[in-house]
Amino acid sequence: MNDSPHRSVLYKEIIHALQPHAGGRYVDGTLGAGGHARGIMEASAPDGQLLGLDVDPQALAIARRNLAPYEHRIHLAQASYTSLAAQLAQLGWEAVDGIVLDLGASSMQFDTPERGFSFLHDAPLDMRFGPHSLQTAADLVNKYSERELADLIFQYGEERDSRKIARAIVRARPIHTTRELVAAIESVSPRRGSFDRLRRVHPATRTFQALRIAVNEELASIEQVLPQALAALKPGGRLAIISFHSLEDRIVKDFFRGQSKDRVNPPYEQIYEAERKATLKEVNRKPIVPSDEETQHNPRARSAKLRIAEKL
Ligand SMILES: C[S@@+](CC[C@H](N)C(=O)[O-])C[C@H]1O[C@@H](n2cnc3c(N)ncnc32)[C@H](O)[C@@H]1O
């Protein structure tokens, strides 16, 4: 795996959001190269602790190296953040002061051709973040019906040519490599060079994104982790989530909004739901986005949105 330094998106903003302090306990559920984790360790010196999770064994090995100066204060596990409650129980931690999730794929994963995330290199069509995922992208493109592929590419990729692309994929099957998939997509895309000038992205961008989200069940994972994260926080503890896709951001936003309102049943109506006090306070109602300077240095940060909530 490419070991080049990874620029953590919204780095300062994450540290500011979590306000790490000495003696605090923190979770980084998407460790990657450990950039945000390092900031948390520095800010919580000398004795703050961190649980770091990633499903990708290669990312974990790099993070372990990058975080070596803090090894006596960190606990790393190759595990999904969807198992957050179990991981905390295993450590014997009842509650934590802050949790960060920086969703999606890392630049290290995109930049490692043999992982199959990039349409710029020929490689087996894999796209799994970790070995726990049951299906590869090749499994999906070869097994799904044309209709299922079109829906997936439209929904997760927001690709308006989803039907055409799904038809081309089905025609080109079996597909085993990124190059074969790109060729199928390009066969129905107006090519100007290999980039679509009108949309300023490669015609395969959206289809690759959609497959990655499906292979790694990214949206379902976010839905699973949110209630666990809320339960794990101490009062005053903070949850900071960076998303890169509007569907991810919607899930986070709806959860934060829902939990930040008292749920009171109107008088004289049959009561179906237990009344409940708000459990969270939204720290920022509008998502925080990277500065122009950050996106200039790191184009991947372009679509990032940070939402922060505090447990009441
Ligand atoms: C954007 S990177 C994180 C970068 C990190 N914040 C840093 O500063 O270096 C996202 C990471 O989350 C991991 N990941 C994705 N889904 C996961 C899940 N369900 N559980 C744990 N890790 C996950 C990916 O393997 C990837 O390494």
Describe this structure in words.
By secondary structure, this protein is α/β, with parallel strands linked by helices. Strands 3-2-1-4-5-7-6 form a seven-stranded mixed sheet, sandwiched between helices. The longest helix has 15 residues.
| SSE string, helices as H and strands as E | HEHEHEHEHHHHHHHEHEHE
Ends distance: 41 Å
Summing up helix and strand content along with how strands pair, one would put the structural category as alpha/beta
Overall radius of gyration: 21 Å
Which characteristics define this entry?
single chain, 312 residues, alpha/beta, binds S-adenosylmethionine
How is the topology of this model organized?
Elements lengths: L10 H8 L6 E4 L6 H9 L5 E6 L2 H10 L7 E5 L5 H8 L4 E7 L4 H4 L26 H7 L2 H12 L4 H11 L5 H9 L18 H11 L2 H15 E11 L2 H14 L20 E3 L9 H6 L7 E7 L1
Parallel strand pairs: 1-2, 1-4, 2-3, 4-5
Antiparallel strand pairs: 5-7, 6-7
Bound molecules: S-adenosylmethionine (SAM).
